[in-house]
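Why does residue order matter? Because the sequence determines the fold. Keep that principle in mind as you read this record.
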Amino acid sequence: MRVYVPTTLTGLAAVAAAGGLGAQPFQAYAVTPALREWYVAGDLEELEYAAMAEAARASLRMLVGDPDVPRRRVVIALDVGDVAVTQLSSPLDGEDRGAVRVGSVATVADIAAIHVDGDDAIADVTAATEALAAADTGDDDAQFVVDGAEDHELLWYASQEIPDLLRLR
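Structure:
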């Protein structure tokens, strides 16, 4: 099963140094029944894109929690066995429809791809991290700023390019 793991460039460096992730169960996003129910008309590719977008939103929240990390959203696309994946409880208010818990160890070799913001997104991602708290309280202007970061497509990188991505830090 393909899962999308939200992280940051600092988190990606830790994954690379450890040779993988999953010593403890970790949160990811995947095509879940709740996501399928919400996006009835979507084919598998569209559903996977929606799961990756949820992971990108979670990555943005991680950036808020660590002001010293470079302002790029990072999502690791990872292949794991279906039995290792458990859907989290029912989504609240339509959020995190694809949230899952992964209870297996995954090596760097299991990484299908890494998705990272390009240089053109940094200003919008930075602004979104600063506006996220206000957006969470219902501020429409702040939500517009957060949506501006989400308008940027994440770039695709192969797992062999992790050393190059870590130079972005």
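The beta strands are 2-7, 20-21, 26-29, 74-79, 85-87, 99-102, 106-107, 111-116, 155-157.
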